[in-house]
Amino acid sequence: MNVPTTRFAPSPSGLLHLGNARTALFSLLAALPDGRFLLRIEDSDRARASPVFEHALRADLAWLGFAAHIDEAAVWRQSERGAVYDDFLQKLARDNLVYPCFCTESELAAERASQRARGLPPRYGGRCAALDPAAALARVAAGGAAVWRFRVPPGQEVTFCDVVRGPQRVATSLLGDFVVRRAQGEAMFFFANALDDALSGVTLVLRGEDHLANTPRQILILRALGLPVPEYGHLPLVLSAGGVPLSKRDGAGSLAALREEGFLPLAVINYLARLGAVVGSERLLPLMDLAQAFDRRRIGHAPARYDREQLLHWQRVAMAGTPVTEWLPWVAEYVPEADRLRFVEAVRPNALFPEDFRRWAGIVYGERRTLDEDARAAIGAAGAEFFRVAAAHLDAGGAAGDLPTVLKAAGHGGRRLFHGLRAALTGRLAGPELKDILALMPRALVARRLLECGSTDAQDL
Fold first, then answer.
1. CA pseudo-torsion sign 312, 314, 320, 322
2. pLDDT, tens digit, for every residue of 96-126?
3. Do residues 347 and 402 both lie within one domain?
4. Alpha-carbon distance 90 to 185, whole Å?
5. What DSSP line would sit under 222-271, residue for residue?
6. How many domains would you assign to the chain?
7. pLDDT for 297-342, tens place per residue?
8. Mean of the pLDDT values across residues 256-260?
């Protein structure tokens, strides 16, 4: 069996979003366990590329757990490979497969407008294709501004089997002679991209469907140069909740924002693995198990819509599956050492993000807690007598854990009892088990909060 080589080739022009991350994940899953997964930095657009964004995307890949599978010695940057692209352009020029084009932007715009008016798809008409090669080169040497265009062979079809979308067929008459090098000297994206894939040994390219139109052009280039053509698979776009494609330029759904919010990387990759694809298990799977379950034939064709609720589902599953001991460092600064394990065990069922441990540490051990409106209402409904009975029990040396029994014996039962106590102690009606709160919270703090509620109007707390 052939061992696949895949790649992730981001442009460092913005923060990676979930669509980019899914492309990276699918490419990695397709390579694991025995193939190669390459990283290439496509930074040829000097106006938009930034080392800041390259550092950020590297941090994102490391956070997701992908960095360990990247061969650092094989990381290429397009900005460092201009001489390679020039060499292959010259090879095409020697074979008369590219030519300089001197058409101005206004001339090209007029040509496109005329074609649209006649109901034709806009494409280059070939005005400069028939120029005498020697005269054209002399004009370039004299400083004439020219792009270089690839001569598309007429009357042919480019066919390939997209591993996601199936057989594809494009008539070369629809392509027109396309630009492979700008007038300023930089290689066009899809020229450099195709060369780097072939020269680095990539055998499978998984990328967004917005690149599908580039594929016939890239196949023509590689065939003309006698270079190997990889398999291609074009993934459906990932849309925002509002139905708009995610974009690096506006930071939509960025991995950096999810990391800052406290999402676990295992939750994110399990969500992404099922975003527009079918995984044969609904369990939380580590990366290598996801690779075993991954089947590129089960990637859907329709756009996938970002669903935060589904992401939160996997976050809950990942939080629940993380060993208790891993959360101890999160609370070391706030929780007495003797209480830490019990505290984490008590809070974990209510912790959606790691930061929730610290928030609950502040509630259980801090000097003040903030009451939400439901808690104020519960304290008011319980009444001052409720809290005076509770405080008197503690003053008499009674155990905090006995408060529910004492209050029930005094005629304060049902929802009012548990809501009143929970609201007074934590400032909210939902959270860890009340018995755990009573066991963990310092006795003096329990007494003070009960006295506050018994002597002060709930709206003033």
1. negative
2. 999 999 999 999 999 999 999 999 889 998 9
3. no
4. 13
5. HHHHTPPPPEEEEEPPEEPTTSPBP-TTTTTTBHHHHHHHT--HHHHHHH
6. 2
7. 899 999 999 999 999 999 999 999 999 999 999 899 999 999 999 9
8. 93
Q: Could you tell me where the beta strands, DSSP code E, fall in 51-105?
A: 76-77, 98-101
Whether residue 381 sits in one domain with residue 344:
no
How would you classify residue 143: left for phi > 0, otherwise alpha for psi between -120 and 50, otherwise beta?
left
Query: Among residues 145, 195, 148, 153, which one has the least CA distance to residue 172?
Result: 153
Residues belonging to the chain = 461
CATH number, residue 399: 1.10.10
Task: For residues 390 and 339, state if they share a domain.
Answer: no
Residue type, 84: V
- Classify residue 18: in a domain, yes or no: no
CA distances 389 to 264, 379, 418, 433, Å, are 44, 14, 14, 22
What string of H, E and C letters represents the secondary structure of 185-214? CCECHHHHHHHHHHHCCCCEEEEEHHHCCH
**222-228 own/partner pairs: CB under 8 Å, 24+ apart:** 222/194, 222/195, 222/198, 224/92, 224/95, 224/97, 224/150, 225/88, 225/91, 225/92, 225/195, 225/198, 227/195, 227/198, 227/199, 228/198, 228/203
Sign of the alpha-carbon dihedral angle for 407, 408, 410, 413: positive
Question: Quick count: other Cβ atoms within 10 Å of Cβ 3?
Answer: 10
- A 10 A CB-CB count for 20 gives 23
Full domain range(s) for residue 341: 324-365
How far apart, in whole angstroms, are the C-alpha atoms of residue 64 and residue 59? 9
Report the C-alpha gap between 198 and 37 in whole angstroms: 14
Please tell me whether the overall predicted TM-score, pTM, comes out greater than 0.85 for this model: yes
